[in-house]
Amino acid sequence: MSEHPAVTTFREYIRIKTVQPNPDYDSAVKFLEKQAQILGLPCKVVKLSSGFPVVIITWEGTDPSLPSIILNSHMDVVPVYPQYWKFDPFAAHKDTDGKIYGRGTQDMKCVGIWHLEAVRKLKTAGVKLLRTVHLMYVPDEEVLGHLGMKLFIETDEFKKLNGGYALDEGLACPDDTIVVYYGERVCLWFKLKVTGNPGHGSQFIQNTAAEKVRRLANFFLDYRAKEEKRLKNTPGLYIGDVNTTNINTWEGGVQMNVVPSEVVIGIDLRVSPKSSVEEVEALVQHWIKESGDGITLEYFQREEMAPTTPITDKDPFWAAFSAACKQSNLKIRPEIFPAATDSRYFRKIGIPALGFTPAPHTPFSSTITTSIWMKKCLSTVSRA
């Protein structure tokens, strides 16, 4: 049985090692330029001040003055530990069951290929769209997008796209319902440097850094447990609707018999759009005050809350999107994305965006997908 051409293209894309921290963007750009040439569409490569490229393939509509549709995906993928892989993560190996193994299959090279295939099928069918469609391939998303989308939205090249609505990445879904993400939680990453009295490990030293860290840890973990309980006990709530916090790094100490003068803990705190960043930050400051003196906070990542995308039928874009999903027999459920994607940059500048990975009956994984699923979703996306 011959392989679907889009699956072949997909596997070719996987083989390009756009893996952080040193993605091969040059090869990805050449690959995408070739796809644009096959489609007969113009392709523009914008070099950002970071030195990273953004690839834009444009299908002009019959009325280019209207705000455009942006189909966004990122080129980079997260690092790999090859020793834990059944096959080479960049070989795009397909087994006898049709399963394709590769880093970035779901996050999110499959979506980038679906966008290409959707345009190809529509063009081949002779469809003329009113609005211009831009297929955009961006760098740096897997490391927060600070040198990618965050820079790009400030450029004149981006403003010329006249973006009116965007589709970006979602997650694969294990059942028959596709989750559509209309907002994201804010990511707050910070370190708390806790100082205290040092001394010999054989003594009862008072006011130590460890005592203060224990009090801090209790505050954060009690809050974590409270939010987890709220999620479990409230029907209709999903993880994006609550706040999560985890203590992910611990640093301190010089040797076993010395009480350290300083301990540093790293916090990952995600705030839902249904909460207030300011209120959560005030709560953290209260915990710091209650834990003792000599505690300082240093942010590594802090962003303002982006607006959510309207999901009522009064919004013409959502009405059209949900109607297309219904026509394609897709069950969808709106949710808040629990982590972070480049969609937040669109929303912050007033461009509504949806996170949409139409992969039902697919276990969430960053390492595996199937050609059967590819074929099914390709036809679905082209109609939607």
Question: Care to describe what's here?
Answer:
- This protein has about 375 residues and is of the alpha/beta class.
- It folds into 2 domains: about 5-170 and about 340-384, Zn peptidases (Aminopeptidase, 3-Layer(aba) Sandwich); about 185-300, Alpha-Beta Plaits.
- It is built from 10 helices and 17 strands.
- It has helices at about 5-15, 25-40, 105-125, 150, 155-160, 210-235, 275-290, 315-325, 345-350, 370-384, and strands spanning about 45, 55-60, 70-75, 95, 100, 135-140, 165-170, 175-185, 185-195, 200, 245-250, 260, 260-270, 295-300, 330-335, 355, 370.
- The strands form 5 sheets. A 6-stranded mixed beta sheet has the order 1-2-6-3-7-16.
- β4 (about 95) and β5 form a beta hairpin.
- The chain is globular, with a radius of gyration of 24 Å.
- Mean pLDDT is about 95; it is low at about 365-384.
